[in-house]
Sequence to fold (244 residues):
Amino acid sequence: MVQGHRLSLPHPTGVAVDGAGNVYVADRYNHRIRKITASGVVSTLAGSASGYTDGTGTSAKFKNPTGVAVDGAGNVYVADYNNHGIRKITTSGVVSTLAGITYGYTDGTGTSAKFKNPYGVAVDGAGNVYVADRDNHRIRKITTSGVVSTLAGSSQGYTDGTGTSAQFAYPFGVAVDGTGNVYVADESNHRIRKITLSAGSAETTETITANVCDTYTSPSGRHTWFEQEYIKTRFQTQQVAIVF
Fold:
């Protein structure tokens, strides 16, 4: 364990906070999930070298984890980007595979489901996990029993609509509110999208922010295009789940 200011984090890409104020970090290039206490003490919750292994603590392996979320019981969910899966870490540090671990696109249960570079995760009050399945251009839902379905999205593009009639382009981050609405940072469409649960259990996607060709003024006064890196920086916290 070390104090935060002495720690090397070469490329942290996701953070989440639990009800006690502990912060969890997807330490991407170190292939680890880190925990930071309220007093700034940093430890490795799970992970070691690059690879794929379920296990406890540092015996487990990740490959470029990018997104993290934490549920009300303190379980941590990880978007294991280059392993194409979603991992779960219990409060005692036991790592298991919730879904995926094979490159592709398939709905199913547990490891029979397939993802392509999942980037962001969020968890709702009922324990359902939502995944920004980046290279499949879809938002996926995983139930507490590990059943994976497609909440919204299909091929790459831009369309508002219901379920798979909607289109995304490399969705990057997700968040979920207390009423179950899902918010998506739609990276290459330069938009923030909202998925609502309508009557009849149909998920409807709408655009709530669209700044495709807008500019903003930096502190130096220089105008800069509102592009992907600005979306990433501005809305990075969309990967953080709301803890109930």
Residues 228-234 form the longest helix (7 residues). The chain has one helix and 22 strands. Confidence is low (pLDDT under 50) at residues 212-244. Helices lie at 228-234.
